[in-house]
Request: fold
Amino acid sequence: MTTAVEAVEVTPQGLIARRLVLLGILAVVLITPAVVSAPSAGLFAQAAVFGIIGLSLNVLMGYAGQISLGHQAFVGVGAFAAAFMTTDGGLPMYVSIPLAAVIGAVTASLLGLVALRIQGLYLALITLAYGLVAERSIFGIQPLTGGGAGKPAFRPAPFESDKIYAYLCLAVLGVILYLDWRMLRTKFGRALLALKSNEQVAASFGMNPVFYKVGAFVLAGALAGLGGGLLAFRQTQVVSQDFTFSTALTYVIMVVVGGLGSRIGVVIGSAFISYLPFLLDGFGRFLEGATTIRPLLWFGENLPVLKIAISALLLLLTITQFPGGIAQQLHPLTMWLSGKPFPKHEKAPRHKKKSLRKKGAFVGTDVADPAAGNGEHEEDPTSSEEG
Amino acid sequence: MGRFIVSGLATGVIYGLAGLGLVLIYKGTRVFNFAQGEFGTVAMYMLYYVVEANDGPYALGMLAGLFAAVVLALLTERLVARPLASAPKVIALVGTAGFALFTIGIELAVAKPEPRSVAPAISGGGVPLFGFIVSGQKILALVVLVIVAVAAGLFFQRTYLGMGILANSQDSVATRIMGANANRISQLTWGIAGLLGGIAGVLLAPESTIVPGYMTTNILIPAFTAAVVGGMTSLPGAFVAGEIIGLVEGLGQYAITRFPGLEVVPEGQAVLLFAVLIVTLVVRPNGLFGSEA
Reply:
């Protein structure tokens, strides 16, 4: 796909400029929690946790081509497990969060073994039903989850500060990003992508589809459990109302709006959706002071409530108009940062889009991976998924 | 026990109606329509606004509810289903789920999260059965279900439009060659599904506390389970399976009252339905009446 541009040499100055910009971005991310107020650092921690949850769902939706509409159940299981183990079991936080990941993996493998015999659309149905069961029944079991009141999860001494906790979440996100990048280059990662592009061909090359799909499910469950554990201690109180059908769809929105299969896009998308209520709140207050026009005032007043409708609208716009999501929009920048020339906007992306449209394929699946740089999971754009 | 069976069968009517809408869209377009529940919720709200908030006549409220449901279904078709016609079906599914979420968001902003209630269409007129009075509303629901079932059967077997929908689901290209307008057929399919969702919503409204997203959280999964058990492509299957699901739920409630230990797990029926769904998909993916997976 990136044929003509690769021949161009990058000058040493160009390389230095790229490194400097990259360092600048990293520095801003690293310094932010330290300089902002404590509540803002809390929001930052939440954005980082959402990034982990987004990466978890991306393993399923972006790499394995499966879908989960009940991902809030895995996150919730991790959150309640971590809160239970620390508050009732007396385990320290740094033990209960990794254990939450293990529990997430175990529950995901149980569901995965049954559900992955079932294909495509039915899997969406099963995961949706599982999410509802978890929300209504499992999270309502009084002795385990404290019923409606929820389960407290207090942070131990050094992490009581929102700023230090934000750094912990950021560090975990960094580790997960690295592992995700390495994972895609192992046999397992390549097999997942192969299965996604064409299951029959992959199977005829000796890959066992059920094994890899259950593997992806377990991996996603572990990451979701980990995210849940971190989320529990960020909120210091886990309540079942936080894990509803709309939460599950919010996670799907993070991944799709970010860009299926692109880990940087997914993290940006997740952080954006995590900040969205805050941004809308601010915009609403701005409208209140800036205008006297009735409909605009109503809009401003209802912005916090409208956040669900607005994020759903973002999802619909993304899948119908810009299937590659944020990753597709940032593609020129990520190309440049990874040491290639800045791609000319008219050529590559638009042509690509048009030809794909004609063939009726979905563009979102073949956004080149910005972190890997060389677009290693390029795939046949004409392949369509199992219906 | 009798009263649990009766109330289960009455709830099953709603599952059957909503499930029929799901089957219809799956037959016509091969899409799992996760927005089906919201067609009903919007109908509930319209009924509430006409009858309770503005003291309008009940019939007008019902008509307004059905109209709103059909309009919402046509919007889903135009804004989500048609643009995603050539995308993977999983993406189309995400699209309908996103549209449902969008509708719930609008309901939250316009109607606020407060619970609402609507008076029944028929007050009184109850019939005692097994020491349990079956309300007039439940009987009305059953009568409507039978009428809809017969009408749907006649429509698909006797009319050109109905046969056009079936033909389009079997071979869209051949149907277009024969001169049928594929877009029209798609609109018609979604419109009828919206109407069925609206009927379910209007009939269920008096027996529920209406909140945004009510039908999606309470009816969508049982309706899908009914559709799957019925075979996903079978119209009579959806009706029969709706009753079966209602019955299973009723018996589950009966079991909870008999064995109080089960109350530790709240909403045990949800677990039961989940088990029915999994077992059906693993053991008999074609359902009871399905001819294809």
